[in-house]
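Sample intake — Magnesium transporter
Collected from: Aegilops tauschii subsp. strangulata
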Amino acid sequence: MELGGDQGNVPMPGSAKIQPFEFKVLEVCLEHTCKCMESETLALEKEAYPALDKLTSKVSTLNLEHVRQIKSRLVELTGRVQKVRDDIEQLVDDDTDMSEMYLTRKLAFQRVDESSVKLDSNKHASPDHEDEKEEEDSGDDIESSHASSAFVKPDVEELEMLLEAYFVQFDGTLNKLCHLRDYVDDTEDYINMMLDEKQNQLLQMGVMLTTATVVITAGIVVVSLFGMNIHIELTLDPETPEMARIKNRKFWETTWATVAGCAAIYILAIYAGKKSKYLQ
């Protein structure tokens, strides 16, 4: 029975490989970071898309300030995700850096080296010249073996699979943020087009009002000319009722002619502006 119990604690050749402690810590850190950034991305998306749609329907100072704050958070979050993603990509591309992350394996090799050094120190040195030569030869063999092992590609498949899995997750989060950034840029372009159109409409209205002011000023000049103390037929007192009727008719003819002339000048000015495409 005791033998059977001991066999249960011994890992069999077909059993799953135990993950090193440093990789468990790394996985926990990456998982926590990934979840935090993913949750921040989802919260930002839920807040950003309605705010952008609201801004396109109504451009106001409050909506613009809200979108500005969202854009600042988006830039900050994108930078963080990009930094983590680039660091993981840099590690995956460098096998030497990944091999340095195998702390448990490095510690085991270090203990083996220390034990071998202790064994060598316990041996009594022989005064014989041949023993010294053998020790020198063995030292040269050890150095050559270490030098040759430096050119062997380290086994980092386990760590590479772990990093690539989280690289895909961070890359997906970054794609969401980039899509949101593109949506913000498109909204900004649309808002700028709307503002440019409003500005053009205001400029056109200003041109039309200025033209109307010039035309009305011309009419006022005509009225001022007739209001001056000039001895003409219209300013003389009528001697008979017939002359009074004629003067009254001429007065209204002059008035309506002035109004019609001003209106005609205004219409011609607007027509010229539209024909030259300065006005729509």
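Post-analysis note: The CA atoms of residues 223 and 254 lie 10 Å apart.
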